[in-house]
Specification:
Length: 149
């Protein structure tokens, strides 16, 4: 599975830790930046790169990082076919995959440690979508909203 990752300065260190974890788990990782710590960078400029790639590749997943993770999730959710979740617990990430078929996980370095992030990433990547009719229907409704634009 291809995993696109991106972070601003506040998420940079966490991204680097998770990147090592993903590579060790044999995921195909494409780092969309930042490639070095740049205190003044703006998260929209960086997150857009990973979100756009996930939008264009329905088999891929994305993981984005920031201080809270909120702005990063907002940016990712601007793209068609992207369903980003702000990950804060194993249960919230698991349910997001089972019920919403989320394909981008946003993590806030202020709120999750590297070890917690690795666990959330593992749950995100290993939990399948349930394919229950009610959840499929709801995702189709979301896609209809996206198509209105």
């Amino acid at each position: 599975m291809k995993v696109f990752i991106a972070a601003d300065h506040a998420g940079f260190e966490l991204k680097e830790e998770v990147k090592k974890f993903l590579i060790a788990q044999n995921y195909e990782v494409e780092d969309c930046g930042a490639f070095s710590f740049e205190k003044g960078d703006d998260y929209p400029d960086l997150i857009v790169k990973a979100a756009e790639k996930v939008s264009q590749d329905p088999q891929s997943k994305g993981i984005v990082f920031g201080k809270s993770g909120t702005g990063e999730a907002i940016v990712a959710n601007k793209f068609k076919n992207v369903r980003a979740v702000l990950g804060f617990s194993v249960d919230n990430v698991r349910l997001s995959r089972e019920h919403n078929d989320t394909n981008v996980l946003s993590l806030g370095s202020e709120f999750v440690s590297a070890e917690q992030a690795k666990k959330l990433v593992q749950v995100f990547l290993e939990t399948p979508f349930s394919n229950e009719a009610r959840h499929v229907r709801r995702i189709e409704e979301i896609q209809e909203i996206e198509d209105r634009e």
